[in-house]
């Protein structure tokens, strides 16, 4: 990191060198990969069973995808302070883009662009390379974000939340009801969903020993998929961190702090909010495409629960801090997919009961949220700024306490000619100006 | 504590800011009625009046927060009536707020850099990939913000969060932030609220320094008469939404209607208490 950029950030972020995290990230990814690909299949039975039960690679992949979603929502909610309750819409759009461009849904046509070699050249339908579909899904989501955002982002907080909620309900419904034939094409097959979705082609990497030409659904290929999804997650982290430090990131923070003041300092509210919404949508699209290839099929089961769960991850992890949000996402997703079920098995086995813990997940999340608000409002790993506002009252607020007394004292000081510094300290403080 | 000399620059005849026959009505309530008003280039003009006279409403029209019911606003001879606040700001109008409205969880430096938004060009991709021009631009913005903080005298707290600054420093930071917009006209909304007499006196010098070194025209709303009389080259008095007087400090001081508006029919003058 050069000297000039090092001093740009607020004091507490200065230590976060730009090379520390990519290296740590890469090491972690490689370690996890090696563990699941080479070590786990070869270790003694009991150990394998424990890891396979509590931390199966399938769950870890799902956790990564939820983390991508949470990083995306963090841009909208954490950075720009716009409450989005319909984020699942972008997940759905991304997944369906993946389904359309990587399956035999449109069997009437045959288009192959960089599809995995295992498909064969004559497979009907549209088959694009996974990497291309990532870009297409992201672009479509960005476009939808702008289309939806342009009219709605003029609204203020509560109203925006309600409109995005509606958007999140509409999009899955559209996919669910899109089973009519339009010009000879069935768009979504309704509740039957779209599948199977192509595996991720490995291209020239398949020449390497032991790498399959396509990463399909077999559990043997899951560690490789983990590599792919982690790479995409790393990209999202990279973009989040970088963008935060620039002109746009500052503008997002400013409108989160005080919309009105920001607009009077030359920040275009609509443009700035739209860009936050669009960048968030892009991440949602990336995650959606990944999700489609992980599950291997897409169904219109994207419900409000998804949006709320992602929001919970962001809030629990610590709004505004990418690392906190990732931790929140991994934790919640793991509890949801494996942790709770495993705990239930263990508990029932131990105490000879028959409690269905998995159906209690939202109860448990609710309790977590309540406990969090009581004891750690700022989240597990919060941004330093938000911790500040949650923990310490502002200086002017403190000084407003007993300002009547101090004002009287200040008058006396003024008469007796005490230095100005003391006067400033004893100044009656104003009301905090950022309400309304 | 000498007041700086007034009328340093000869008027160029061009208005930095001009409002023509502004009417603002909220429903049936007329807050500002047919007020015309101008700030000559390089001038320091005050807008005064009792509480509820419509001063802040008038300010809000100038900055684009309200669209006037009738009338036009010109910024350097350019019609900006009804334009969005951020566009008016980019064209050269910046303000401070009566109740300080800083970005509390941003550092002093970041606060100033936000205000440079409309003068910076880097977009998403150049920021993500730290293109050379983006880095250059950031470095320049960074240096400029440090200069501005230095100018208002709070350079040493530039890495502190705005909410942690002392009240006086917050006021200064507001001015620095407004100057970062590179305005042609600077609007100060009750800048000396909460200051003691010594600080207010210093503030008068400061306003002159801002005008001279940053080459801006200044329009203030102010309650403290001693400040108004010392700082202004011209004063406009509003009462109940109407302009009741305009002129130099001496004329205003002698104006019967102004005294009446402020104090009713009896009592001593406010400015006499302080000076």
CATH class of the largest domain in chain A: Mainly Alpha
Sheet/helix structural class of chain A: mainly alpha
- Please give the largest β-sheet of chain B: 6 strands, mixed
Radius of gyration of chain B: 19 Å
Give the rounded overall mean pLDDT of chain B.
Answer: 87
Evaluate the radius of gyration of chain A: 25 Å
CATH topology heading of the largest domain in chain A? ABC transporter involved in vitamin B12 uptake, BtuC
Number of domains of chain A: 2
The low-confidence runs of chain B, each spanning 5 or more residues with pLDDT under 50, are: 1-11, 266-275
Gap between N and C termini of chain B? 11 Å
> Beta fraction of the residues of chain A?
under 5%
Number of strands of chain A: 7
Q: Please provide the count of β strands of chain B.
A: 10
User: Would you tell me which CATH topology of chain B applies?
Assistant: Rossmann fold
Q: How would you characterize this protein structure?
A:
- The complex is a heterodimer of chains A (436) and B (275).
- With 436 residues, chain A is mostly helical.
- Chain A folds into two domains: 3-381, ABC transporter involved in vitamin B12 uptake, BtuC (Orthogonal Bundle); 393-436, no CATH class.
- Helix content of chain A is 63%, strand content 4%.
- The radius of gyration of chain A is 25 Å and the shape is globular.
- The two termini of chain A are 40 Å apart.
- Residues 1-16 and 414-436 of chain A have low confidence and may be disordered.
- By secondary structure, chain B is α/β, with parallel strands linked by helices.
- Chain B has one domain (15-103, 167-274): 3-Layer(aba) Sandwich (Rossmann fold), CATH 3.40.50.
- The radius of gyration of chain B is 19 Å and the shape is globular.
- Chains A and B meet through helix 8, helix 9, helix 10, helix 11 and helix 15 of A and helix 2, helix 3, helix 4, helix 5 and helix 6 of B.
Helix-strand blueprint:
The complex is a heterodimer of chains A (436) and B (275).
Chain A: H1 3-6, H2 20-39, H3 45-54, H4 57-79, H5 88-101, E1 102-103, E2 110-113, E3 125-128, H6 130-152, H7 157-177, E4 181-182, E5 185-186, E6 200-201, E7 214-215, H8 222-244, H9 247-257, H10 259-264, H11 269-295, H12 304-317, H13 322-351, H14 361-375, H15 384-391, H16 395-400, H17 403-416, H18 420-425
Helix pairs in contact in A: 2-8, 4-8, 4-11, 4-12, 4-13, 5-6, 5-7, 5-11, 6-11, 8-11, 9-11, 12-13
Chain B: E1 15-26, E2 29-40, E3 44-48, H1 55-62, E4 70-75, E5 78-79, H2 85-92, E6 93-95, H3 108-114, H4 124-128, H5 132-152, H6 167-180, E7 185-189, H7 197-214, E8 217-221, H8 225-231, E9 234-239, E10 242-247, H9 249-254, H10 256-263, H11 270-274
Parallel strand pairs in B: 3-8, 3-9, 6-7, 7-8
Antiparallel strand pairs in B: 1-2, 1-4, 4-5, 9-10
């Amino acid at each position: 990191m050069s000297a000039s950029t090092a001093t740009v950030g607020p004091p507490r972020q200065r230590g976060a060198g730009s090379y520390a995290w990519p290296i740590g990230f890469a090491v972690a990814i490689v370690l996890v990969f090696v563990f699941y690909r080479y070590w786990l299949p070869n270790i003694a039975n009991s150990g394998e069973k424990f890891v396979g039960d509590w931390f199966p690679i399938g769950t870890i992949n799902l956790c990564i995808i939820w983390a991508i979603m949470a990083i995306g929502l963090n841009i909208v909610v954490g950075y720009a302070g716009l409450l989005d309750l319909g984020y699942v819409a972008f997940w759905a759009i991304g997944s369906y883009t993946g389904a359309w461009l990587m399956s035999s849904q449109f069997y009437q046509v045959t288009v192959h662009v960089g599809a995995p070699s295992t498909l064969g050249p004559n497979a009907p339908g549209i088959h694009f390379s996974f990497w291309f579909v990532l870009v297409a899904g992201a672009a479509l989501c960005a476009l939808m974000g702008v289309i939806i955002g342009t009219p709605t982002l003029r609204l203020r907080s509560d109203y925006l939340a309600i409109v995005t909620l509606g958007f999140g309900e509409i999009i899955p419904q559209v996919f669910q009801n899109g089973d009519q034939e339009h010009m000879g094409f069935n768009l979504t097959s309704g509740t039957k969903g779209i599948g199977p979705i192509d595996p991720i082609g490995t291209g020239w990497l398949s020449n390497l020993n032991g790498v399959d030409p396509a990463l399909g659904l077999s559990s043997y290929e899951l560690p490789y998929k983990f590599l792919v999804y982690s790479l995409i997650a790393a990209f999202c982290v990279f973009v989040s961190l970088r963008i935060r430090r620039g002109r746009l990131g500052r503008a997002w923070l400013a409108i989160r702090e005080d919309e009105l003041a920001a607009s009077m300092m030359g920040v275009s509210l609509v443009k700035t909010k739209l860009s936050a919404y669009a960048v968030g949508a892009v991440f949602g699209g990336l995650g959606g495409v990944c999700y489609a290839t992980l599950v291997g099929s897409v169904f219109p089961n994207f419900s409000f629960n998804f949006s709320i769960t992602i929001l919970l991850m962001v809030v629990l992890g610590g709004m505004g801090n990418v690392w906190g949000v990732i931790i929140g996402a991994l934790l919640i997703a793991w509890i949801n997919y494996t942790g709770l079920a495993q705990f239930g098995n263990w508990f029932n086995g131990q105490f000879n009961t028959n409690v269905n813990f998995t159906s209690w997940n939202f109860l448990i999340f609710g309790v977590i949220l309540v406990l969090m608000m009581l004891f750690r409002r700022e989240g597990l790993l919060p941004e330093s700024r938000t911790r500040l506002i949650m923990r310490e009252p502002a200086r002017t607020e403190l000084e407003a306490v007993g300002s009547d007394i101090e004002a009287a004292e200040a008058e006396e000081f003024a008469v007796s000619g005490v230095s100005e510094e003391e006067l400033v300290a004893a100044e009656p403080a104003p009301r905090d100006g950022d309400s309304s | 504590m000498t007041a700086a000399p007034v009328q340093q620059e000869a008027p160029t005849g061009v208005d930095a800011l001009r409002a023509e026959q502004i009417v603002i009505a909220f429903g049936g309530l007329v807050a500002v009625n047919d007020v015309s008003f101008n700030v000559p280039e390089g001038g320091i003009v005050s807008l005064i009046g009792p509480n509820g006279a419509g001063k802040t409403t008038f300010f809000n029209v100038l900055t684009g927060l309200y669209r006037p019911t009738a009338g036009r606003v010109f910024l350097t001879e350019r019609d900006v009536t009804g334009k969005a606040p951020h566009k008016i700001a980019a064209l050269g109008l910046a303000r401070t707020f009566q109740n300080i409205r800083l970005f509390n969880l941003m550092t002093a430096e970041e606060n100033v850099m936000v205000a440079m938004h409309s003068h910076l060009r880097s977009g998403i991709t150049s920021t993500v990939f730290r293109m050379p021009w983006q880095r250059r631009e950031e470095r320049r913005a960074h240096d400029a913000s440090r200069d501005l903080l230095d100018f208002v005298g709070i350079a040493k707290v530039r890495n502190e969060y705005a909410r942690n600054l002392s009240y006086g420093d917050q006021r200064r930071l507001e001015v620095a932030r407004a100057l970062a917009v590179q305005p042609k006209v600077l609007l100060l909304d009750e800048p000396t609220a909460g200051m003691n007499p010594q600080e207010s006196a210093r503030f008068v010098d400061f306003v002159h320094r801002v005008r001279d070194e940053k080459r801006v025209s200044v329009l203030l709303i102010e309650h403290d008469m001693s400040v108004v009389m010392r700082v202004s080259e011209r004063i406009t008095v509003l009462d109940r939404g109407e302009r009741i007087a305009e002129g130099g400090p001496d004329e205003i001081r002698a104006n019967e209607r102004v005294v009446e508006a402020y104090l009713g029919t009896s009592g001593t003058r406010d400015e006499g208490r302080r000076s």
